[in-house]
Fold:
Amino acid sequence: MKIDKSKPSHWLKLLSFAAQATVGLLLRPLSKKSAVTLYGHKLNGNLLPLYQQCPDAVFLSMDRDYCLALHAQGIRAQWACTPGAALLLARSKAIISDHGLHSLEPLLPAYRKTGLKCFDVWHGIPFKGFDADDFRLQRTYDEVWVASPLHRELYIERYGFAPEKVIVTGYARTDALVQPAHTNIELREHLKLPADGAIILFAPTWAQDTQGRSLYPFGHNETEFLTVLSELARAHNATVILRTHLNSSGTEVRREYSNICRMPSNQWTDTESILQVSDVLICDWSSIAFDYLLLGRPTLFLDVPAPFRKGFSLGPEYRFGALVCSLKTLMQELERAIEQPDEYWRSHAEKHSAVLTDIYGAWADGKATQRCLERLSEW
Structure:
C-alpha cells in the first residue's frame, strides 16, 4: 500500500498497524516461531514466487480491500490493522520485504532482540540513483538478496552495505521470465488481450524527483501521443498496453483510444505476465527494462531527461536498445521492430548481449527463488 500522508485515513491505518505491532512484540515470548511474513506494497515482484514456494509465508498489508481480494483468491494474506496481524508478527521467524516496513520500522530493533530475522528483496535493478541514506533500514537487516555481482557491487560501494550482508541469489521474479509456467496464448486469454497481433508495451516511469513530469515524451500531450500510437497499432493489427507506474496517481488517461489497453500497475500487479506477452517495449528510465531484457525482444528507449535528483545507479550506457528522440523516430523504430525485427537485431544484438551479461551474469537461470529459500533456511 502506498501511503498518502495527506489522508487522515492513512494515518489511522499507520496508528492501527503500530498498535498491532506493539501487541505482537509483547506476545513473541509466548509464541512458537513458524511463520514467514512478506511485506510490500503488493504481493508481486520478488515476493510472489517466494510466497508460492514457501508454505509458511503470509502476506501482510495495510490495504484492507487488497487483503480481501487476495483472500478471495485463496491467498494467505493478513490485514495489518487487526489482531490477526499481532498474532502473525508474534509467531514470525522472519520477515522478507521489498520496500520499507512503515509502522513496524520503529519497533524493529526490539523485534530483532526476540529473534526475528530480516531479509530484503528490493523490487528493482535501477537506473535511478540512490545513496547510503536511502537504505538506512535495510542495512540493519540480516541479508539482502540481489540479482547479480554487479548489483552486489552497487550495494556495497554505493549504498554502504557490509559485504557479508549482500548475497547474490538472482531475482526470484525473473524465474517466471526464464522458465514461464504458461504459454503466450494462455496469458493473452488471462489478460483479456487479442489472440493475435503484436503486443506493444508502453511503460513510462513516474515523475520521481521532477515535479510535473509528463508520462508522454517530447513535449506531446496525451491526445497527441496516444492518437499517433493508436493509429500505428491499428495499421499493424497490434495492441498497445499502457502500463503506468504504481506511483503515477492522478495521471489517468482521460479517454479511450482504439487498440490501446490500459493496465496500470495498481490494478494489474502481475508484471511478469504482461512482459511475457509483449513483443516490443517502449520505456524511458523505468527499471522494467532490465526485466524485459531477459526476454530478448526489441526495446525502444525514449531519450528524455532522467527525473532523478541523485543521478544514476546504472547510467545511460545501460540502455541496450534503440534510442528515440522524437515521436516520428519512435514510430519508425516501432514499425521496424514489428515488421523487420532482423533489422533491429542487426543494430542492437551486441548491446543486448553485453548488458545482459553485466546485469545478470549467470544468475538468471530460473533457480533464484530456490536460492532465496535456501538462504532463508540457513537462518
Summary: The chain is about 35% helix and 15% strand. Residues 339 and 347 are 15 Å apart (CA to CA). The first helix runs from residue 8 to 27.
